[in-house]
Amino acid sequence: MAAAVLLRLPFVASPLGIDEGGYAYVAANWNVGDGGIYGEQWVDRPPLLIALYAIAVALAGDVGVRLLGCVAAALIVVASAGVAHRAAGRTAMTWSAVAAVVLSSSTLWQAHTVNAELPAAAFVAAAVWMTVLALGSTTWRRAFAMAIGAGVLAGCAVLVKQSFLDGFVFAGAAVVGALVLERGPRRRRVAAVLAGGVVGAAVVAAVLVAWAQAVGPGIGELLDALYGFRIDARGAIGDAAAPDERAVLLLVLVSASGLLSLLAYTWIGLVRLARGDQSVRAGADELLLRSTAVGLAALSVWGVFAVTQGGNWWRHYLVQLVPVLAMGLGVVAGGVSDRARSRIARGSTRAGAVVSVVVGVAWAIGAAWSATGNVQREVAVAGDWLKDASRPGDTLVVTWGHPNVLRRSGLNSPYGLAWSLPVRVRDPRLDDLRALVAGKAPPTWIVEWQPIGLWGLDRGGRVQTLVEQRYDHVADVCHRAIYRLSSSGGSDTGSVPSVPSASDCDPGLWDRAVDGLRW
């Protein structure tokens, strides 16, 4: 746990990424206005994620977001080690703990940042741990109580990111596996685990419905934002070339890093344990070990499905696989007897060693660039310039998809869509933005981070024309055009801070390598 925290410290003070900054911005302005689920801003993420961000931001600002990541990573480590130890012994615990540290701190799949996947993975790891403890309980009452906790934690993971059904997938597969394998008196305890999990999940669902109906947008609108929007978004994603490029990059990444080999070896080893093709280590609870292997094998399949069906192929999707890879590696490496140790077990540990080396090298490079201030450089420079140039009451719109600039600048946006995908789905012709810019309370500042007409949004150039009519082009910061409402539009024109030099805006090799790479 200490190692997991220490490996994240070099990144604590780095500027927030796109999703990090966006969630922090939404959380800090929650319930301001009435235009969306969380106030004026709309985001397709569940309320527990925004609540965690709100707590982190209230306690320590942007640094609090990264400290939230430290807590999540430490929980992943201890839960992964706990699962492996309870199911397969001390050797398994060691492998799982080390794997969890490595995988939860990797810069290759952005695990060092605090996107929705990391806190969701922490809840998943805790839910799996509680499920294993419930399955290994000596009384049905204890099994029932532990399973309630597992159901609550699994539900919390879904309330952080809606695709993280991992806790339920593991519990369902493990319970079914245990019921099939056990023909004796323990079936009552296994049934108690199933009942307790259902109760725990029902508690979470009841709380969600109560919140949505009492103080939220209503359960129908919330479900539409979380799931209906994702269905609508698949068309917009499919129209762009960038996801295909990211898909190729992701495939190269998982292959070259050894992650694909680790996943394959681990899954095969889990299946062999589940089927009884491997003799288990002396003193192990065979029913618990094999049912845990069943659950982890099913969870591996679900994790791959969830990552590949996301559509956008972002690297941080791979964080969803961190708990199952860490737990699975430990169970495969430590669950079989020494005499029966197979090529699969040896292959999984070797693949884990390869991943550790590759991740370690990438982490060292990323930590060095973070320490020298070369991560998210353009966002930091542009956001700080806007903060210096603005006056109290000023507002800002950034095109498209960089809400971390909003967060960095300290300005609020009157336009309720801060991410690019919601803009393409909910305002595909920019009717809302055009009405805002043409209205009586237009944004004071517009930053053209990407062309206004990208993806064919501004057909006929209607918004671009309005911007040219009502705004002054006052600066180009980090090659981004910045417009301020002209005096005829109701704002005073005046001097602005000096424009940073090109060297100040240089994003550095790290950002160019991992974010600007195109295939």
Order of helices and strands: HHHHHHHHHHHHHHHEHHHEHEEHH
- Spatial separation of the terminal alpha carbons: 37 Å
Residue runs with pLDDT of under 50 for 5 or more positions:
none
Oligomer: single chain
Structural class determined from secondary elements? mainly alpha
Percent strand equals: under 5%
Record field, number of beta strands: 4
Taken together, the total number of domains comes to: 2
In one word, what is the shape?
Answer: elongated
How much helical structure, as a percent, in the residues? 55-70%
Largest sheet: 4 strands, mixed
Distinctive features:
519 residues, mainly alpha, 4-stranded mixed sheet, 63% helix
Describe this structure as you would to a colleague.
By secondary structure, the chain is mainly α. It is built from 21 helices and four strands. It has a four-stranded mixed sheet.
At a glance:
It contains 21 helices and four strands. With 519 residues, it is mostly helical.
What order do the helices and strands come in, and which of them pair?
Elements: H1 2-6, H2 18-28, H3 47-88, H4 90-103, H5 117-135, H6 140-158, H7 166-181, H8 187-214, H9 219-238, H10 242-256, H11 259-275, H12 286-308, H13 322-335, H14 343-371, H15 377-389, E1 396-399, H16 403-409, H17 420-426, H18 431-438, E2 445-448, H19 462-470, E3 471-477, E4 480-485, H20 502-505, H21 508-515
